[in-house]
Write a structure and sequence with these properties.
mainly beta, eight-stranded antiparallel sheet, globular, 178 residues, 3 helices
């Protein structure tokens, strides 16, 4: 099983590591919106997913961590991202995930590194204008690979979701399904 280690500032109330398909920052994927708020505190941003209006997103910029929910408050996924804006200097550089053979994948890793560590055939691949998302549904993890700018080819974000739950995280039309 792959593991991401997260060190979060004490003021946010988060702690612990990230385990694909299980938990992140001390937040189990089985938690509801109220439990997440008790653990992480008040989010810095709340919005609807622009690609799927049925999903709400809360973000804790100081942690470079976000949560995606269904309207009823069920947690669907947790996201971590590269700290290009220096919003979370204490934690952003510390995110990494152990792949097969112990290779650490982080925000300096390239697509080939991800494939070597997690497999050359992800279960799903989502393409967007600026990203390719490699989805390892059986592991409960996805990697956003940047497709433009100064970070072209690098991991920009990692999403953790329940094993085999990726189709609930992204809009079905994103996968080419009507």
């Amino acid at each position: 099983m792959a593991i991401v280690f997260l060190v979060a500032p004490g003021s946010a109330g988060a702690g612990g590591g990230i385990t694909p398909g299980i938990a992140a920052g001390g937040v189990p994927l089985s938690a509801g919106v109220e439990v997440v708020a008790r653990i992480l505190g008040t989010p810095s941003t709340e919005l609807r997913d622009p690609t799927n209006q049925g999903i709400y997103i809360q973000r804790w910029e100081q942690l470079c961590l976000g949560a995606r929910y269904e309207p009823g408050g069920e947690l669907l996924a947790l996201d971590v991202w590269v700290d290009v804006a220096d919003a979370c200097p204490d934690v952003g550089a510390q995110y990494s995930i152990q792949g097969q053979g112990g290779e650490a994948i982080g925000f300096r890793s390239r697509q080939d590194d991800v494939k070597r560590a997690f497999g050359y055939h992800p279960e799903r691949v989502l393409r967007a204008p600026s990203f390719t998302v490699l989805v390892y549904d059986g592991e409960g993890v996805a990697f956003y690979i940047r497709r433009d700018g100064g970070r072209d080819g690098l991991v920009d974000a990692i999403t953790i979701f329940p094993v085999h739950g990726s189709t609930r995280v992204w809009s079905p039309s994103a996968w080419g399904v009507p």
